[in-house]
Design goal:
CATH topology: Hypothetical upf0131 protein ytfp
CATH architecture: Roll
Number of strands: 8
Number of helices: 2
Largest sheet: 3 strands, antiparallel
CATH class: Alpha Beta
Oligomer: single chain
Number of domains: 1
Strand content: 25-35%
Low-confidence stretches: none
């Protein structure tokens, strides 16, 4: 059964699922933690794997950086192309996509893997969100 981990505008406090008409097809499972670093990109966040950054995200912060989000069970796989379009992911042209859909092993819930849209652009001028949580970022 496919799962989707979200960390931005597709989380429940926001309206994107309703706006896209997919809320009934994404069943909330639990909160989750995704390995990565979260950046403020303006009207939405972007997560990148820590290993993709030229320098460590925060050398004074112990442990691996985490992105906090929500885990959903995908009730209808036909929603993935809708979400791909929303996230700017083209599976036929990944290099030019804004986000890349990747299956990632989550930190929490332990042992779970899910589809995650990871940001595919530069973060040089973006502000890091140290909490890893878009919902509490000001």
């Amino acid at each position: 059964m496919d799962r989707l981990a979200t960390y931005g505008t597709l989380m429940r406090p926001f309206d994107a699922q309703d706006d896209l008409g997919i809320a009934a097809d994404l069943i909330f499972v639990d909160s989750c933690q995704i390995p990565g670093v979260l950046f403020d990109l303006g009207s939405f966040p972007g997560a990148v794997p820590a290993g993709d950054l030229p320098s460590p995200p925060d050398p004074e912060s112990p442990g691996d950086p985490l992105v906090r989000g929500e885990l959903f069970r995908i009730a209808d796989p036909s929603v993935l192309p809708v979400i791909d379009a929303y996230e700017g992911y083209d599976p036929h042209r990944p290099a030019s996509s804004l986000f890349l859909r990747r299956r990632i092993r989550l930190r929490e819930p332990e042992g779970q893997a899910a589809w995650v849209y990871m940001y595919n652009g530069p973060v040089d001028d973006a502000t890091r969100i140290p909490s890893g949580d878009w919902r509490t970022h000001e």
